[in-house]
Amino acid sequence: MRLRNKPWAVKLVNDHPESVLQNPDPDKKIDWAERFDNDHPIEIEVGSGKGHFITTLAEMHPDKNYVALELQTTAAGIILRTKLEKGLDNLQILRGDAADINCFFPENSTNVIYLNFSDPWPKTRHEKRRLTYKSFLAKYQQVLTKDGHIEFKTDNSGLFAYSVQSMNNYGMLFDFVSVDLHHEKPEIVEKNIETEYEHKFVAKGNPIYALHAHFETK
Question: Among positive and negative, which fits the CA dihedral 44, 48, 53, 57?
Fold first, then answer.
């Protein structure tokens, strides 16, 4: 999701280094326990957009730590504004590239990685940019705990089919797969937290594809 540049967001982000890490050195692991001032479990959303999903999770689970990994400054600013308004001390924003996720997080440090409505990169020559390509899966495997898992949602059937195949080829195991998330059992639908993008597509009657998968024990 490409957002229009908002000058106020740049200033807000620059004014709050305690909440937003900008382009950190990929050669140096981040001390997340120091930034959060605790050692609670960490969950990451890769590409958080305007942040409704990750801020809702952080508000619901104050006993967990959340990191919004987002490349766009405007998106980081919008997420930060919500964080400050709601007083979400358990949410940090990381401005960086998902390709460096294994540089930003130590091994076995993360319980869940959320991939919500990632860019499908539909052209074959762009396959390596897809967030479920094997090189990304290898990096996720490094940072996830042995009991950790990936939760993936998309409105793009092509990306979903590709992701299922990519994860299967990598040897991942599936805990949940749905080709129409919003028409699953009520208890599943009730637990789902919509992103802004998801809400628009559901309103149009489009199906949402979802899966939860984990790596075999290291």
Answer: positive
Mean pLDDT of 59-68: 98
Q: What is the DSSP letter of 27?
A: T
Q: Indicate if 155 belongs to the active site.
A: no
Q: How many CB atoms lie within 10 A of CB 127?
A: 13
**CA distance linking residue 49 with residue 182, whole number of Å:** 21
Contact of 169 with 132, CB cutoff 8 Å: no
Helix (H) or strand (E) holding 176: strand 173-178
Q: Which residues contact 2 (CB under 8 A, 6 or more apart)?
A: 72
Write out the two tokens for 99. Answer: 């390709």
pLDDT tens digits for range 84-134? 999 999 999 999 999 999 999 999 999 999 999 999 999 999 999 999 999
Q: Which of 37, 39, 97, 119 is catalytic?
A: 119
**115 pairs with which residues across the strands?**
46, 152
pTM above 0.85?
yes
In the three-class reduction of DSSP (H, G, I as helix; E, B as strand; rest coil), residue 113 is classed as strand
Cα–Cα distances (Å) from 190 to 26, 171, 194, in that order, read 38, 30, 10
